[in-house]
Amino acid sequence: MNFIFLVTVVLTALIFVGLVVVIANAIAPRSYNPQKMEPYECGIPTRGKTWMQFHVGYYLFAILFLMFEVETVFLFPWAVVTAELGVAGLCSVLFFLFILVLGLAYAWKKGALEWK
């Protein structure tokens, strides 16, 4: 019984997505301009060498920011059900925060948070 329901849902989803893609391609406005195929550079023509390397510190700082930002998002669902989880939930979140602090301490020790 559940298998039939699952197959029905998957087929319905595939048909719906396929239908939406076909309709979008059919009614989408088209413009055949040769300028559309050029790389987009904010509308400003480039001068000289356009390939620049950025310092790895920018990427490292951005990855650390995203990592800690995403991990803090996981704390919100815990805060909603904190009364239902009891001591086991509290211990789990404290362990999670401990791992976060260890990661922050490691990044700090490696100098990833310093601009040089």
Automatic annotation (TrEMBL):
Entry's transmembrane regions: 6-28, 56-79, 85-108
GO CC annotation: NADH dehydrogenase complex; plasma membrane
Localization in the cell: Cell membrane; Membrane
Catalytic activity, EC: 7.1.1.-
One Pfam family per UniProt: Oxidored_q4
Bilayer topology annotation: Multi-pass membrane protein
Keyword ATP-binding found: no
Reactions that this protein is recorded to catalyse: a quinone + NADH + 5 H(+)(in) = a quinol + NAD(+) + 4 H(+)(out)
GO molecular function: NADH dehydrogenase (quinone) (non-electrogenic) activity; NADH dehydrogenase (ubiquinone) activity; quinone binding
Superkingdom of the organism of origin: Bacteria
The keyword Cell inner membrane belongs to this UniProt entry's keyword annotation: yes
Keywords (A to Z) from UniProt: Cell inner membrane, Cell membrane, Membrane, NAD, Quinone, Translocase, Transmembrane, Transmembrane helix, Transport
Stored InterPro entries: NAD(P)H_OxRDtase_bac/plastid, NADH_UbQ/plastoQ_OxRdtase_su3, NDAH_ubi_oxred_su3_sf
Assembly mode: NDH-1 is composed of 14 different subunits. Subunits NuoA, H, J, K, L, M, N constitute the membrane sector of the complex.
Stated family: Belongs to the complex I subunit 3 family.
Function field: NDH-1 shuttles electrons from NADH, via FMN and iron-sulfur (Fe-S) centers, to quinones in the respiratory chain. The immediate electron acceptor for the enzyme in this species is believed to be a menaquinone. Couples the redox reaction to proton translocation (for every two electrons transferred, four hydrogen ions are translocated across the cytoplasmic membrane), and thus conserves the redox energy in a proton gradient.
Protein name per its UniProtKB record: NADH-quinone oxidoreductase subunit A
Gene responsible for this protein: nuoA
